[in-house]
What we know:
Structural class: alpha+beta
Oligomer: single chain
Number of helices: 8
Amino acid sequence: MGFxxxxxxxxxxxxxxxxxxxxxxxxxxxxxxxxxxVHVTRIMLDRARARxxxxxxxxxxxxxxxxxxxxxLCGGSFNTPQLLMLSGIGPAEHLREFDIGVVADLPVGRNxxxxxxxxxxxxxxxxxxxxxxMRFDRMAINMLRAYLLGSGLAATIPSxxxxxxxxxxxxxxxxxxFMFPIAPQRPPVWFPGIRKAYADVFGLRPxxxxxxxxxxxxxxxxxxxAPTRIRFNAFSAPGDIAVLxxxxxIGRDVTRQKALDHYRGAEITPGDALETDAELDAYIRRxxxxxxxxxxxxxxxxxxxxxxxxxxxxxxIEGLRVVDxxxxxxxxxxxxxxxxTMMAEKAADMIRGRRLTS
Length: 358
């Protein structure tokens, strides 16, 4: 709990994503085949055992990938539940709406959670360092430096500070995160006499870490190419908006400290005129956005609300696991990227049968 500089998935100036950190080093292995430009349409099931997947090629033809051991789904919190439901694994009543035969009646698609955030933004009295660096010639140099040397301003995150706070002292864990934007959301490059510089800003962005609200992911049709129906149901639990409102008030107290007087201009959002609970609640409902941490739609656990068991296996189905953020039963007190990578590492050990030590 507290304020500090965060860690990043950056190596030698480049984002170290799953593709660059895991897939690229393994591409030369003879036991790996990567199919791109294809769309998985269903899981091949032999009664209650997964035998592979069917996918559609760019030509429109269908092909099968058959598994000797297991099928592992890593489609994420939206696409994994869609594929399970299209294959007959999901809420029985919902599947029957689309004439999909029920293989396993499980609460697939339920329990959708995400971090929601709002913005407390101020004009700067003077442009900041990042604003100066966004001048075209300077940014061009920074981009070259990042590309060739993996260093400099373009090789890191502009604002590396995060904070995790409690809105009530008796809580076991922080319930609000602060992110610190130091520029507009999409600042353009500028150059004197050609393109006017943007108005510089800074601020604080509170996000609720443990919402009680739950959404769901459901089918629109039995067509595997149809997008899913995603309902976040944000702030459907009445306590959530109160937590985010308190986070916004605490954030305002931080940004209005005397030490920031030299930098802080007029408040842009929510605006000095908004002070009451009702006004701030209306502002939150109008402007809150996801932090893009969706999870929980195929939650692991041991109770009837669980889709997966603690080994990430789909309950009631042999040879089928889910390894992605949909398996998380609850949100963590932070960003989920590193957590999902950790889950994949652990799942790889379980799949190989490697002995796990504490």
